[in-house]
Specification:
This protein is of the alpha+beta class. It contains 5 helices and 11 strands, in the order H-E-E-E-E-E-E-E-E-H-E-H-H-E-E-H. It has a single domain, classed as endopeptidase domain like (from Nostoc punctiforme) (endopeptidase fold (from Nostoc punctiforme)), CATH 3.90.1720. The protein has a 5-stranded antiparallel beta sheet. Strands 4-3-10-11 form a 4-stranded antiparallel beta sheet, covered by helices on one side. This is Protein FAM84B-like.
Length: 225
Amino acid sequence: MGNAEAAYKQVSVNDDSVSEDLMFVFHSTEGDCNERVIHDGVDYNKTNPIMYTILMDKRIIAEEKLNEETCTVHSCPRFRPGDAIEVLATPRFWTLYAGDEICVCLHNEEIVRQDIKVAFSDHPLRKVNKVYKLKVLPANQIVEKAQSQVGQKCVWWSSECFVMWCRTGMMEFKEDETLLHVSQPKDFTKMYMLEILHDDGTCTQHDFETLQPLIKFKNENTTNK
């Protein structure tokens, strides 16, 4: 799958001043968020995703860090509209918080609204706003983009792609049939690289021409079994 040159120019990387500094305040009662979050007999501290980095033109645009704190749905008042949330289910997936305990996500190849406390009560949650180092839209625009897709035909390879399209507006996260048949020049260099740091300390690199297949490959290869 090819990508037009113009599409790459939509990528912008923000500086540290744009990063959010919101902190969760977690309950200290049993069953709520703490250093080791255990639900349904699964120790999520042991199933943390493997560390990885995504680069575009040798610039880091996404980075996974281990031991990110998790929380339960009881902490959802601490989420803000437009937040990206990872649901630590099997398999893991992303959803977008729209406010008032409602989230919008890709489910069974359809964009749906869900009550966060009803849909995800059995799974820890992790806010992942800082995984991607990209400029994000204002919160109201993020939520508006997500809500506008409810019930629409799915054009995303994964829930992560949908959430990041809502947050950034970048077409790299959205499947576009007009880009599938674009001929690339002979000296075309693959612009996306995925670096995976494995548990044994080894690092592997994988090159991709477009972002969506990279994310799909990453999701299939960066979760401990």
